[in-house]
Write the structure tokens for this entry.
Amino acid sequence: LAIIAVTVDNFNLGVFSLGCVFLTVLSYYLKPENEYFVWSYSFIPAKFLFAKIKIGLMFSFYLCLPILILLSIFYFEHLIVLLLCTLLGFLYVSTFILAKYSAYPKEMDFSQGIIFAIGLFPPMLIVVIPFFTSQSINKLRKFLK
């Protein structure tokens, strides 16, 4: 899509391709992993969450990098918009990881989905991220000591 966006000179299609990458990354965090794999980290809950978020952001950055390079070369005048969209995507990935572990060991339910949807409005992330962080730490205390 990013290559097509450049060939037809449509920056919005390029940003959409970047959004599709972030949606794909979010889909990998829908199912909770086995309790053994969480327990094997042997971190305190906050450090475990930080490690998971760091891994998620690193891999999503690797997936976004070719699109970012391509779009920044051909649409340098829109670089700030591109970087803001990428930053927002990283915030959503981090929030989704926290939401996943706020329901752990079960899957995310309707209430977590609604709270995450509220967080799609960027200023609400100031409230949603600390809420999911505290819930995740409480849920993970049983599995991480």
